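Bench log, entry 3. Co-assembly request; chain sequences pasted below exactly as received.
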Amino acid sequence: MEPKIRFQNVSYFYGDRPALRDVTLDIPPNAITVVFGPAGGGKTTLLRLINRLNDEVEGTRMTGRVLLDGQDVYAPGVDVPRLRRRVGMVFALPLPLPGTVRENVLYGPKLAGIRDRARLEEILERSLRLAALWDEVKDRLDDPASRLSGGQQQRLCIARSLALEPEVLLLDEPTSGLDPISTGKVEEALQQLKHQYTIVIVPHSVQQAARVADYAAFFLMGELVECQPGRDLFTTPRDRRTEDYITGRFG
Amino acid sequence: MINRYQVQRLGFILLGVISLIVVLPILFVVGNIVVQGIGAINWEFLTAMPHGGMKEGGIFPAIVGTLLLVLGTAVVAIPVGIGGAIYLAEYARDTFWTRTLRLAIINLAGVPSVVYGLFGLGLFVLFLQFGTSVLAGSLTLAIMTLPVIISTAEEALRAVPGEFRLVSASLGGTRWQGIRHIVLPQALPGIITGIILGLLRAAGETAPILFTAAAFYLPRIPRSLLEPTMALPYHLYVISTQVPGMPPRVQYGTALVLLTIVLSMNAVAAIIRSYFRRRREW
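Structure output for the full assembly:
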């Protein structure tokens, strides 16, 4: 199966500080790939290279290539807003935009130029259903998004990304601020979504990594230590450092 | 022996007295102007031309002139000011050039208003040959107002959390779309405050219009932007110092009208601010 995303010898520096060291990694389509490891390992940087969200950061340097469907996303002439519509992102904290639930979900589609009301309504309902939020908010679509609970806000952020019908969904510790029940709902939603989307997630714990991973990649200080199908990596890790980390010897 | 609760009470009382000292002079000035000026206020005073050596009639052209100058200032200063603030807060990188620009803006805010007046005289009245006119006065006041508008608007834009820009970008928004749809609406209360503070200053200043727009005595409404006009602050200066035997009633009445215009603009600003603050979600 052709990988959806490929990192080829990617190194990345903030000033002189390396965040990624010669990473080569293939991410398969229609599966959940977990990127995990201790803080400062380059996980967030890895995610933000895929949708070029680090473009605005000053004083950075990158070598190597990032390919999406075989196309270099850093090639000259790439339409960056269009790339970001194909690659959705959910952040660590629920970050609803100012405005209502409806405005949040439809922000992206409206910027993309969709004006037709019926079509927008359809996108609204479909996205909220996919994020397993529809039943809870269908009567409060015009309430301020800030009035939802934290767990609902985070699923709203997922719905907001899905509204653009992306191909890839990047989630950067999406449940770090949530209680266990909300976390469960988000993870459930992801299990449904992986059939249609390529999902890359930075989990907020090793336990979560083990729960959701189809594939798992372990990062340590900017280095990719190993990448395997999840059930193999968490039962029989090849590298000693991976074993030490998942058994809780450091972290 | 005094215990610490008594010390605290003493502190509170002291702070209360200090606050009173701050507020009292303002209350006294406003109260004095209201008491002495209210007798002059009637329909004729507000809507008639002055006559009889400005001792009789009304101050209508000065009221209209001040409103025109403020309007002209707003038309020029608001778009330029907001544009400049957006550039500085959202686009400009931290280079020698932008640091110089910022320094210049901060320093401009401290330039005495009479210097702006002379600058306006040199550039607009003489060099560009607008003459002593509403246009030249508005442009001069706009330049004086710009630093205030730019620095408060820049501050307001910077106060909007960076995450909103990131989220907007992650949803396929260009940088401008994020500013236009998210950042700017969130910063609006602060921007409006800056605009009104700037325009307030423009409404009350005498020195910048002294050489650029103000007429000593012109009992009619300007017919075009290239004509001079009467204006309240300058008129007040004239009738207080240049006309012997001016009844104090007229002086205080004029001051009261100017004060009312300025304070009601301030009130509008406060209302707008609190309206938007209630809708803000961070």
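Chain B touches chain A through 20 residues (CB under 8 Å). Residues 60-232 of chain B form a domain with the MetI-like fold fold (CATH 1.10.3720.10).
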